[in-house]
Design a protein that fits this description.
- The structure is a homodimer.
- Chain A has helices spanning about 15-20, 25-30, 40-50, 55-60, 60-75, 90-100, 105-120, 130-135, 140-150, 150-165; strands at about 5-10, 35-40, 175-180, 185.
- By secondary structure, chain A is α+β, with helices and mostly antiparallel strands.
- In chain A, α6 packs across α9 (about 140-150) and α8 crosses α9.
- Chains A and B meet through α5 and β4 of A and α5 and β4 of B.
């Protein structure tokens, strides 16, 4: 596996992407693979299957379980948890800023900081002001980054990334894809199973 | 946890219930809890949210991932895997027979044998003949058991069990409920997470 690359697909609005982003770094280091962060938008993919919002809102029983499950998982993983309102948050601006950052050294730190703010502190991530706060926390020039995030090049890049996600058969987040065509869906697939006694 | 009871809710048509049923016995023994098998029908629950068949059929991308994921998980868990056709199988008769058996010593063995036949060997579980085969494999009087399975008492019991599942907020299978009102959904929740270094 050494030298292998794992593509990590996530939407900033996705609850289980929070669990994944907070532990993928150490896990990847442990097994010696490189992780490429691939933010995308679930919205167009959900729309294509007839959903106008998160399935956790469309199916209340599923949603109730998700929030309780997330709370339990955060406790096990020792992660702070606070539910943002509304859910899902509009993740368009955060995804665009992330694409700017992922071509620079601060991209992954930005992604972690956004998820921590949103699901650890329950704060909104939708506005320019919210993104400025996160960027300032990383000692970046927020105004300059936000301008780059609204460029045509970044807008096009995000559309292309979302189209690629759809082409790869993604239907939810987080998802993970490998160079040999495997698709794994869900935060639970980040680790190899505990069961089966395999390592 | 000693002396605690975990209710294990499953539908014989459910793919991930196969993964759960094949390992819940040893896991429960390891941590010293008693497991109560609660077969129910997902059909009425899916119908209530507007689904006419399995979501794995309704959403093809989700379905494609599930079959590949199941194949990978079976390999990790060292379980045989073969896809039944059609999917989902009609699980009504198997659920009724299981209710007969779960009041007798052979109930859990019957459940394991049905899942092994369906997803380990890809065989149909729908007909009386298929159920007779499984029952005969457990050295039971198939004709007598099948007659009991079609009694009004058993039919009523299965309807009540499905209604209880719905009342408890179940929306999929496998699910697990505890005496203190917790609901866990999905085969992945059977073990405590590997991550977080907690036991």
């Amino acid at each position: 596996m050494h030298g292998a690359v794992l593509d990590f697909w996530f939407d900033f609005a996705s609850t289980y992407s929070y669990l994944a982003v907070m532990r993928i770094g150490p896990l990847a280091e442990e097994i010696g693979i490189r992780v490429r962060f691939r933010p995308f938008l679930l919205g167009p993919i959900f729309e294509a299957q007839g959903w106008t919002t998160s399935p956790f809102n469309l199916y209340p029983a599923k949603g109730r379980h998700m929030w309780r499950d997330l709370e339990r998982q955060c406790a096990i993983l020792n992660l702070p948890f606070r539910r943002p309102n509304p859910f899902p948050q509009n993740s368009l601006l955060a995804a665009r800023v992330a694409l700017v950052g992922l071509d620079e050294p601060w991209g992954k730190d930005f992604c972690l900081a956004v998820f921590r703010s949103e699901f650890g502190e329950g704060r909104s991530i939708e506005s320019s002001a919210a993104m400025s706060d996160v960027l300032a926390g990383l000692s970046l020039d927020a105004a300059q980054v936000l301008q780059a995030a609204q460029s045509d090049a970044i807008k096009t890049q995000l559309r292309a990334q979302t189209a690629e996600a759809q082409r790869l058969g993604l239907f939810g987040a987080p998802s993970f894809t490998t160079g040999d065509g495997e698709l794994f869906w869900g935060s639970d697939r980040l680790e190899r199973r505990c069961a089966g006694k395999s390592k």
